[in-house]
What we know:
This protein is an alpha/beta fold and 205 residues long. It has helices at residues 25-37, 54-65, 94-111, 136-153, 160-165, 187-201, and strands spanning 18-22, 43-45, 76-79, 116-120, 157-158. It has a five-stranded parallel beta sheet, sandwiched between helices. Helix 2 (54-65) packs parallel to helix 3.
Amino acid sequence: MALSAALEPVVPDPSLPVVWTGGDSVSMGWVGPLREALSGEASVLRPNENCSTSAYWLERLEHYWWPLGQARGVSVVVFNMGLHDIMPHRAISQSAYGDNLDALVVVLRRLFPRAQLLFVNTSFVGENPGTVGRDNANVILYNGEASTRMAAQGVPVLDMYALCAANYPAWYVDEGSFTQDDEHMNDTGKAAQGAWLAGIIRGYL
């Protein structure tokens, strides 16, 4: 599934609970398989763009929420950010990242008062992280910050990092591919991520 397909509008089924997701391009890869896995069980929605950094999330969250129309409740919110916060040209400190996560949780709880929040940590970055210079050592540090902040907020952390690290490189875009960067998943990886997330989300529907 192409990343752009994740951004196509989805009309929610009024008879089903809603799962609202948002995150970076890795999450854009698994949202299609997640929709397929939860077909007939939930409508899976997400913003029609890459949600980028935690600061950008904060700026855009009200905009993302408004198209939902406030007409019906959201049962589960699955959110992710971090990969863009460690990019060298826009990196922020661990504490600033944590502060943004705290602020996001506050806003998400206000916008989706009946929803269960689930945070997906940043996935493993391999040895060839493209041209943007992401470092897996920083992924580990920022995931640690996220785990601490989410624990304090009472938000479960879904360990996408461990799942992907255990399946590297098999789930990652093949070496030599135009898009190979040791960050994004191939179709096998995306399908496995979606199925894994669906299994967890079902427990909250």
